[in-house]
Amino acid sequence: MHAVILAGGKGVRLRPYTTALPKPLVPIGDQHAILEIVLRQLSAAGFDRCTIAIGHLGEIIRAYVGDGSQWGMSIDYATEESPLGTMGPLLTLRDRLPEEFLVMNGDVLTDLDYADVLRRHGRSGAPLTIATYARKVHIDFGVLTTDASRVVAFTEKPSMDYRVSMGVYGVSRTTLDDYTPGLPLGFDELVLDLLRAQNPPHAYEFDGYWLDIGRPDDYDRANAEFTSRKSLLLKGA
C-alpha cells in the first residue's frame, strides 16, 4: 500500500514553533516528532511505500526521514517549488502512484486505521474517500434569525455539530485525470468539482482520537495528553 504525506506547508498557524522546524517535525512528548508517529503508524498498518511532498524547510524533513528504512518502508520525495494546494502535489506524482492510494496531512495525530480507510475506499467505488470526524462548535454569542429586518428566532450561545475533514483521504488515480500538473488544486476545489459532476465522495466516519496539530490549542493538548495516549497511538508500531 502506498501513502502520500503532504508536508510542504509553512505552518503559519503554529508559529513560533515552526520558525525553525517544518510543522511535521514539531515534537510530541519528549521523544517523537509528529511525522515519526505517522510513519510508524503507517508501517504498522501495512504501508510499504510512502511519498512525502515537501516544500518549506523540506530538506530538514528529508534529512530526518531518509529513505524510510528505519520504519521498514521505502520513502521518496516530491518537492513543491511553489505552493500547489492540498491536492496539487498529487498531479505531478500521478505516474508514480498506484490506482488507489492514501493521502494525508503531515500534522495529524489520530488512532485512525489508515489501512481500513484505503480498503473501504476501494470497495466504495467512489472517486475520493474523506475521513470525517464529529466536531461540536460553540458560538459565544446570541444567534439571531431574521426575515425582512424582523427577528424571528433567537438562540443564546448555541452549539452546532458538524462532520469535518480529518485531513486523511483515499484517492483513485483516475480522479486526477482532468487536472493539469503544475497548477494548484485545493481539496475544496476537487470536492466541489465532484459534487457538480454528481460523482460524490464517500465519507469514512470516525469517532476515535483525532487532533489537527496545525491548531495551537490542539498542539498544546496533544503534548499534554501524549503520555497517557502513547499506547493507543503507537500500538503495534
From TrEMBL:
> Nucleotidyl transferase domain: from which residue to which, for each copy?
3-227
The superkingdom listed in its UniProt entry is Bacteria
- Quote any Pfam family the record assigns: NTP_transferase
Query: What PANTHER family does the database record attribute to this sequence?
Result: SUGAR-1-PHOSPHATE GUANYL TRANSFERASE
Q: Under what name is this protein listed?
A: Nucleotidyltransferase family protein
Q: Which organism is it from?
A: Streptomyces albidocamelliae
